[in-house]
Amino acid sequence: MALSWARGRGVTPQRLWPVLREAGGPEALLAWPEEELARRLDSADRARAVIRSAQDDAGERWAAEIERTGARVITAFEPEYPPLLAEISDPPFAFFAAGNLDRLRLPAVAVVGSREATRYGRDVAAALARDLSSVGVCVVSGFARGVDAAAHEAALEGPGGTIAVLGCGLDVDYPREHTRLKQELIARQLVLSEFPPGTEPQAGNFPVRNRVIAGLATGVVVVEASRRSGSLITARLANDFGRDVFAVPGSIFSATSQGAHELLREGAILCRGAEDVFAELFPSIGGARAAPSPPAAPPAEISTTARRLFALLQNVESTTPEELSREADLPAASVLAALFELEEAGLASGDETGWFGVRR
Description:
The protein is an alpha/beta fold. The protein has helices at residues 2-7, 13-23, 26-31, 34-41, 44-54, 58-67, 83-86, 119-134, 147-155, 179-188, 205-216, 230-240, 258-265, 274-281, 304-313, 321-328, 332-344; strands spanning 72-75, 94-99, 108-112, 138-141, 162-166, 190-193, 219-222, 244-247, 269-270, 348-350, 356-358. The strands form two sheets. A nine-stranded mixed sheet has the order 1-2-6-5-4-3-7-8-9, sandwiched between helices. α4 packs across α5 (44-54). It is globular.
């Protein structure tokens, strides 16, 4: 149903999302009389289009064709859809995904910047991404040349990994020189696009992509950006969505740092390294451990995997995600997501070296 709406013409997500939220979901919306739906959508034609699309199984057939290529179609009404993305003002009805969907369950930070990055910009992006990924934070970026590519490649070194958000269809090789990197991300990480297969990169696609980058992340770090950089669009969208925006200072003589300096002047958080991101977004990383006391019982909403790891942590003073992954025979991404659940519930804590223990 949602896929049919995503493919339909004349019924945009921006028009239908508010009405869906008022109704409480697709089924409730379709239970309204057509006149009521037309009033809510400000158009009898749109109301008829919504009703016709819901009765057509073309969307499901389309999804089946796409999934035969190894990709997935994730609609806004499926459990895999990221809650943070659903919170933005105009979330996509659906997106296309290739790779490991567990990446969507990890805490995420976007690292973005200039396509024409200097060596300094690429080195900073790589250091940030490496440090974030090393403690289980997933690095989101836009798969462009320069800063984005440096961030994706460095994030591969840690358990947090990376998500690439494209401004074209998943099957379109753009940029051409990133073909090998894209194959590696699909094999081990995650590649997303809001655009259907076959969509070629066009200038208007990239601001659309940028809102998804900002929507997936708890914060956005701009490494290098000129005054007309698309990274500034990502930063301003992130600010509109209530996300923290960080900017890395550069040389006052460098054109590729002028946009980042503008953000700092406008109130962006100074980023001198991953420690500044941790301090704002993940204060438990690097924090002192609490004094020993009996651990709390996990609340009912904690996942089965988190409960299992909580039980294992009872028996050790501290351990690493890698050791837990081996002991529990679970994928590293699942272990990191469960540890994040335990941290959020106040049941476990970690430090910058990657060691975790139960909060006592």
